Structures are given as C-alpha cells and as structure tokens.
Amino acid sequence: MPIVKVDKDPLVLHNDSVRFKLRATIPAGLVSEENNYTLLPEYQYGEGALPLEEIKVDESDLAGPGQAVEIIRNMSFPYMEGMDRGELRIKGLMEEVETGKAFTTPYMTLATGIISTVNLARVGQFAPGENIPEVGAYMSYDDDFMNMAAHELNYYFSKNAAQANPSSFNEDFVGELKSLVEKGEEINRIIVLGMASPDEGDYNSLAATRAQVAEQQVRVQLKKMGYEGDVESIDIVLQRKEPDWLLFRHLLRTFEGIDMKERDKYFDVIYADDTYESKVEQLKEIPSYNRFSKEKFGEMQLAKVMVMMAQDRRSDPEISAMANMYINGTATGDELTEAELARAATFNPGLKDKQLIYEAMLKKHGSALAYNNLGVVYLNQAHRMIKISDKNNKVNQAMRLFRMSNEINESPQARHNMGQAYLMWGDYGAAYLEISKANALAKDNPEFQRFNEGKRGALDIIRGDYKLATLRLDKAPETATNMFNKGLAYFLAEEYGQAAIAFEESALSNMEFGYAFYGLALVASQNSDEERLYENLKKAVQRSPYLKLRAATDLEFRDYFEEQAYIEAIK
C-alpha cells in the first residue's frame, strides 16, 4: 500500500478553489518494468464525487531499481456549494504492462471536510431570515449640472428637411416656450442640439443646420411672445452632437411588439465598434426595422432646446407634494424639471416610488443620473425576487441602464453598480474590475472612494488577498458590515487580536448584526476561550438562521461539536 498524506485536514477554501499539497510514497515493487501505478484522488460529497487529477507513475519515475517512488504534488479543485462536509480520498490502481490486468486498493481518506470561512465575506448578499441590505450607489443632484435644471423643449422637422416647421407638430414647443416667458424670469442660457434619425442622409450636415434653424426660431418666438429681456443678448450655444444612440435606445425601450431577443439584435449593432453608416445598414437587416423606423424615427428628427432660467427652485415641500401627485396618478410628471424629479426621489424611500420618478426622468430623454439611479432601483428589486430567472432578468436590465449612464457620462457610481450587478451573478472577477475602475474615476471624490473601498476590500477577501483587504477596509466607512469584513480579513490573516477589535466594533455599530458575534466566536475558538465562544455563538445564531445552520457544521468549531455547552449554544 502506498503512503499518502496531505498538508491540511480539514482542507481550506482560498480564493475560489481548495488547494493542498499531496505527498505520496509508493513502495518498491509496485512500480517496475512490469507494472505501472496510478493514484486516483477524488473529493466525495453529497451523493456524488469530483474526480481530481490522476497521478501516473511508471518505471521512468524510479530513482533506482528496488527503490520507492516519492511524489510531491500541488493540487486544487474548484469549490462548489455543499462541499464543506465531504472528504478527500484516494485509491491506487496497479496495471500489469503485458497482460493489462488491473488491481485497485481500497479508498483511503486523506482529509475530512473544507473550512470555508472566506465565504462569510459580506458583499451585499443575505440569507433567508436576514435583513435585506441596500446595494448600489445612487448619483445625487449637483447644482453644477445645469443641464439637469434646464427646461427641455423639442423642435421637430420633416424627414430629411431643415426648414422652419410651423406645423401642429411643434405646438408643444411654442406652448412650453410661452409658459416659460410668462413666468417673467430671466433666461440665462440656451443650448441647442441638432439631431437626425438613422433613415435620414448626411447626419452631420442635417443636424448642424437644424440646430441653426431652431436657434432662429427660438429668437423669433421669444420676440413674438413679449419676452421682457434682450433676446439678442441671450447666450445661445449650438452644440455639435454625434449620432444619438442614446435617444435611439430610449425609443427602442418604448417600442412595443418586439421581444427581448429582437431588441438584443439592435443593441448588438449599436454597441459594435463600427462606423455610423455601417451600423445604419446593419439595422436595416433587422426584421422589425421598417416598423420601428416608421413608428419612432420621427421623434429623432428634431433639435433639442434646453432653456436655463434664473429662477429659484421650488421648495422641498412643493417638490415632494407634486411628486406625490404624480406617484398617485393625479399629475403627469411634466410639472417638475429633471432636477426636481431627482430631488423628489430622495424623499421617497420606497423602491416602487423611486422607480416611477426615475422613469419619469427618462421620459424627458434622461441623463446619466436617471439611467444610473433607475438601475440601482432594479438591483434592489432583484434582491427581493425569489425566482432566479426573474432576478437575473432584472439584474440584466439594470446592467443595461448602467452602460447607458456611462455612455452619457462615465461615473464612479455607474461603474460601482455594474460591479455590484456582477456580484449578484457571482462573477467576482468582473465585479472586481468594475469596482476598481470606479475607484480610479472617483479620485476627486474621497467620500465615494471610501464607500467604494469597502466593497473592494470585501472582494479582496474573496480573492484571497487578506492583507490588502485590511488596508482597504481601514479606509472604508465604519459600518457594521465593513468592520465585520475587516475583522474577517484579519482573522484569515491569522491576526486574531486585530480581528477581535474589528468584530467588537462591528457589534457596537449594530447589535442586531449576527455576523459580528459569529466573528468573535471564531476568535474565541482560536484562543480556546470556551466561555466567550459559547456566549458569542449564542448571540449570533439568535440573530441569523443562516449562522445557526452554519455553526452546526462549521469546521472552525470542530473541536467543540460534541460538547454539551456547544450544542446548547446553537439550539
């Protein structure tokens, strides 16, 4: 029989895999010119087993005639749910070279179970019976974003035309401009963006001419309406806008009668690295294109006119009251500017109310803030869904909104949120890249960087870089979750004194957070402090059904499983 040992029993989860060193001595005689020998390791758990890398030995591995074969091999296997209470075992297979006959040894157990303490890292997940944490980063309204406070008007043109269009198509433009003039307030600035639809020729020339015509119409109408200020002195800025796939995507979202698969065909084209002209030709090949262009492209044949007034914003109570009228269905939402809608959303904690408000912002053709914040609402709604398919669909919708937000204005918030979305899919590598990008984008926003470092430090724990995790979590806000993750990083780095301090701070921050007490129980176990172990474990399992189940099988506490005090503590 060969002698086989591993360096860990139980095994330990590190990063996303279980790694160990196997040492084997195969006695003289089992390997020779006549015999080959193979070691067959596997990890058995539940009702199945995961075969591991075979170790084949033949005469070329012999140091000399009649000598034993010594093998040292670094091995690993991916961790999967349910593996904690399995066993690593191995058997030998000897084959006669000439006859092909094979003889196997009985299985030998090398290690029992896996310590998966790293899985305790909190990255926004929760177990049944636990409070559902809020995830994601909302963007906040900033007075510097003047375009958000602007009143946005649309001046429409006939297809392929750039002449003034006094038809009924522009009655809303005239009416809305008149309402602004009647307020009697000074106009600070006007920004005009010319646009064209994909089925119109020469985008750049047409869009530029439309912007000039819209500027003339604004001045003409202001004079007609009796604007009290000097019309000629108003700062009107004509901006050149690239082909606007943002509005295209908005119209696509509101285009009924096609399924998600058909919409994806459009997204595949517009996200491709290709010229505008080439994309237009590819769009024409999509079966629903003719109907889509007929129903929606007229809404892209326009100039956007953003009027910025020297006005006092409505008071918060006024904004809140008008937002509630909209939520209750007694107002259209057009009464509030985009900035006021953004402000109103902060007064409404309910996800459904926030969704309605941010969707109203998108109806105004939206902003980076509107796309990002609606995406955050979707992430938190996904968190509360039971069906996996519903949850994944909602996360996917959120990711699209974050991409749209970044296309308008790349932000640390949208990057962070994309990372959080990947976390909800269990893709830790992609999540780490996005959250790291968020940190780079937030170099002028130290408060956001601290928030972001909390999530990045938690991911460092999962990635197995415990020291780096402690450094990052040192910078993070001192929330119960961040302090627990910091304690966990110190614990996994075997710095138990520092771990205990962080776990205690986590408990003091939120006495209902069971993980903090579980962490203190882990430290007590390492210190053989049974009194503190039982005391903290009892507090942990009282606060979390998940931790109660985990404590019953967590191999960190294996030395105490048979103790009556332990059994009482986790009842």
From TrEMBL:
SUPFAM superfamilies: TPR-like. Gene3D superfamilies: Tetratricopeptide repeat domain. InterPro entries: TPR-like_helical_dom_sf. This is Tetratricopeptide repeat protein.
